[in-house]
Amino acid sequence: MSLRILLWSGVGIVALLTVAATGWLLSLPSASLAAVQPAIDAKEAEAMLTALKPKRQRPLIAIIGVNDGTETTDYLMPYGILRRADVADVVALATQPGPVQLHPALRVEPDATTAVFDAQHPEGADYVIVPAMMRDDDPNVLTWIRAQSAKGAMVIGVCVGATVVGASGLLDGRRATTHWYSLSELRQKHPTIRYVADRRYVVDGNVATTTGITASMPMMLTLIEAIAGRDKAEAVARDLGLDHWDARHDSGAFKFTRPFALTAIGNTLAFFNHEQLGIPLTTGMDEVSLALTADAWSRTFRSGAVTFAAKDGAVVSRAGIRILPDQVASDWPADRRVSAMADMPSAKALDRTLEDITARYGARTTDLVAMQLEYPRTQPAQ
Questions:
Q1: Catalytic residue positions, numbered
Q2: pTM to 2 decimals?
Q3: What is the CATH number of domain 42-251?
Q4: Residue range 170-188, pLDDT digits in tens
């Protein structure tokens, strides 16, 4: 069962219910929590930074998406973090003209199409960031990624974006990781890939991959460190509200469990209680916090997040991405309005959102969301 189907539509629940009917779910283990892992060895960390070093003093970073289905946080979080760092030129691309529909929430106008980018930058990008997409075999995406790699770009597959990079052939024979749910699929389709456990991101030559959705934050900070040094990365981390970051990860804490499945089924069957939650768009808002908030609320299987603004037309975020409102409205019912967490650092927005989800739907739903995001949490939801 594809992660894209399970996490981006209700179709996956049908499969879950089928499995549940066989009784197999009842034999699955309970959910576990992420444990603190040993620090990354200094030689390993230095090797990753060396591999990520740019070729130009002011590198060019391209984030590629497909118009009809690109993962929300995979696309927006790298854009927001790298733009605020101001250590590279960063562009958000789409394969075709028009807006990019992000999943499970938000709709944005990219900076350019891949064709326009190629015409403006025939030498190619220094880095190409590949988010998860609704399909991992889009021929336009695969052709473009291969061409950028051939020109010398470092290709970074974020989350299930690793399966897109894998489909391009760039991961064959390399060390890699991906979102826990897509690992079996990746290894089946590409048996020469050498999976690396307990790492949020893995760098092998001119290709890097990450685990789940939230891993793009430490990955981008590491990239900033490789480009501009540790002091700059630490300054951006402070702005984000992070005290530390590195590649350590507890892979064993993320797996398909009985509570995960049964909570998803129960929340889906409670369709009469499904809510549409509104998030107001405001000029200059933090797109990283917005992405994390909208993504999390849209993964509860009880709610979906939509954006609204007083008038039609794009609202420009802090880093310059143009966000299109889902609905034109001057206000939203107070009991179904949620905050984009503009009053706190971006890294804290997800924690606060998970607390709000616990208060609204309970701890099991919070665990369900955190598992989908592959977000390391050392304490259970209260």
A1: 159
A2: 0.92
A3: 3.40.50.880
A4: 999 999 999 999 999 999 9
